[in-house]
Amino acid sequence: MKQVILETAGLTKSFDKGNAVLNKIDFSIHQGEVVVIVGPSGCGKSTFLRCLNLLEEADSGEILLEGKLINQEKKNVHKYREQIGMVFQSYELFPHKNVIDNVCLAPLLVQKRNKDEVKEEALKLLKRVGLLEKAESYPRQLSGGQKQRVAIVRALMMHPKVLLLDEITAALDPEMVREVLQVVLELAKEGMTMVIVTHEMEFARAVADRVIFLDRGEILEEEKPEEFFTCPRTERAKKFLNTFHYE
Amino acid sequence: MRGIMDYSFIVENTPLYLEAALLTIKIAACGIVGSFVVGIVCCLIRELKIPLLSPLVQVYIELSRNTPLLIQLFFLYFGLPKLGIVWSSEACGIIGLIFLGGSYMAEGFRTGIDNVPKIQRESAYSLGLTGTQTFWKIILPQAIATSVPVFCANSIFLLKETSVFSAVALADLMYVTKDLIGLYYKTDEALLMLVIAYLIILLPLSLISTWIERRVRYAGYGNTGTL
Ligand SMILES: Nc1ncnc2c1ncn2[C@@H]1O[C@H](COP(=O)(O)OP(=O)(O)OP(=O)(O)O)[C@@H](O)[C@H]1O
Ligand SMILES: [Mg+2]
After folding, report:
1. Where are the alpha helices (DSSP H) in B48-186?
2. ipTM of the assembly?
3. Could you say which of A85, A86, A96 has the minimum Cβ distance to residue B145?
4. Which of A50, A153, A176, B156 could crosslink A55 through cysteines, CB 3.0-4.6 Å?
């Protein structure tokens, strides 16, 4: 079995003393694995990803990155975040920087890497996602799909050990969804370790090694995509999947 | 002969107004630049929550925003000398303006920072940036860009406030006007020239700020909205 990259044990999180948004989540992802998390709106998917990236502080439970506990000390949070990439639904490119500066900023500032080498890699990646000619453009000059591809490149530039994608196509017009998902499918093929939250069920089925069904802050199902999408075991998963069918 | 202007009077006194206008501009320029610097420094102190200085800044801002410029000037010009601190009337004017403007700039600047969406910060964090790096590289540039309209409005406000300075015996436009009225009773002419002088100063400033605002808006800084 391959090395475990990211792992949680008993991860619990609630907001303002309310009910637990995440309830004792045990989760792990191995090197090169793609885990897709699906579940109804408000079930805690985003909160889970944000906890993994330490943007949200868990109430209790452990988060381990390559076996190292990362959610106890406050001081080195940025050191851990650096190794965990994240792409948001709303892209969140930096509007005052052009594309190339957006993607080079963190490698230069945080990792203090060589400027020429970083730029060369950036151009290579931008070319791969078909945006080489947009290197000097500003985010406001790009379409949603283009922005999201830049955001993916920006995350990849840090050589993260795992990439977290939170509904990265949810804000896109339908005709732009494919160009973004195509990039993710290619990354999966190359062995990128990813945790993906999505409402695109066809895509989930194609990209996932394992599907997790999250409902009311708990993992109700966890299995291979063929099994989950053809014969889900729980009633709630069946009901959830039915909402994607039109007769 | 009321109702008819004495043009020779106007021509005769134009140099006087010119000189006064230059003084007004000089004080306003120093005051605006100074306010900007004080505003940014105050804002940084508050944003980075520097102990001791942070509450001090809070007190200053409340004090500055809740007292009229005239009172502040009187305090600087008549009050402080009693404590042994003597200013020239010019220094007094500039310091008074900075004292007033600094807090307005700081507040405008804070609004700019608050307007940067929280998720921009998180986006920087998720790339491994520290809090300080995020502030300097991501938040600050966007905050400055969105605060530009406020800075422009504040600058015009401060320039207008210089009219209060004649109260501390500074030979600015208002002072010259009052002087001339007192000496020759040419009220209409003197006031007309006053209005024109302020217009000549304020109009370009207003146009420049509109131009800057439009450019900033075009650059799309700060608005992170989707396409
Ligand atoms: N900062 C917050 N403060 C208070 N409650 C929050 C906060 N963030 C999320 N919640 C609540 O936690 C629950 C889970 O939210 P979360 O965003 O994780 O759901 P989700 O599964 O990502 O939903 P969606 O599919 O709509 O994105 C929701 O009920 C939400 O209202
Ligand atoms: Mg969500």
Report:
1. 53-66, 69-74, 80-82, 89-115, 118-125, 131-134, 140-161, 173-184
2. 0.94
3. A96
4. A50
